Amino acid sequence: MHVLIILAASPINNLDNLITDALGIFATPLQYGSGHIQPSKAADPGLVYDASYSDYLLFLCSSTGNFLDPTFNCPIIPPSASNLNYPSLAITNLIGAVTVERTVTNVGAGNTTYTVSTSVPRGYTFTISPSILHFSATGEKQSFTITVAAAATASGNAFGWYVWFDGTHVVTSPVVINTVF
Questions:
Q1: Fewer CB within 10 Å of terminal CB in the chain, N or C?
Q2: CB atoms inside a 10 Å sphere around CB 112
Q3: CB 83: neighbour CB atoms within 10 A?
């Protein structure tokens, strides 16, 4: 259920303004997460990102170590924490470029096509492939890759997003990047 709430969130508040912090300054995803929750949109999100119990254990292996399930053995070389199939994307200590894969499940009508658009912070590039996802049926899964690259001048925290749109559903995924050169 938490995935649906993330996908049904927006950086726009109930007054149709950008979310601000306590001082009235425009907030960043580090302050507001995925945004203002819009529960009515969670009933029909269009796309969802599925992650299994094992996916979360692999995430723990790569970030803090698996202390939750002694029956699960972490791989010697765990996958990057950025690879968790989650709607948001966080990349820490980016040097050069990194590519991650995401898989979405169509929970809307069959025979629908989503196109992607991006908001990329200055000093970075996002490449999403494929840039069009066509679903023939409800329940169908499609995978795509996101390559995030940093220019030599990029430094600190940067925020962007990518959005899948089918004419009805707007599925927004925030991207947070930390780059240290």
A1: N
A2: 20
A3: 18
115-170 tens-digit pLDDT: 999 988 888 999 999 999 999 999 999 999 999 998 877 777 888 889 999 999 98
Sign of CA dihedral 64, 162, 170, 85: negative
Three-state secondary structure along the chain? CHHHHHHCEECECCCCCECECCCCCECCHHHHCCCEECHHHHCCCCEECCCCHHHHHHHHHHHCCCCCCCCCCCCCCCCCHHHCCCCCEEEEEECCEEEEEEEEEECCCCCEEEEEEEECCCCEEEEEECCEEEECCCCCEEEEEEEEEECCCCCEEEEEEEEEECCCCEEEEEEEEEECC
User: d(Cα 12, Cα 26) in Å, to the nearest integer?
Assistant: 11
Name the residue among 53, 45, 33 with its Cα closest to residue 7. 45
Amino acid at 150: A
Residue type, 114: Y
Q: What is the pLDDT of residues 43-87, one digit of tens each?
A: 778 899 988 888 889 988 888 877 788 898 889 998 888 888 988
- Round to whole Å and give the CA distance between 139 and 108: 8
- Write down the pTM of the prediction: 0.81
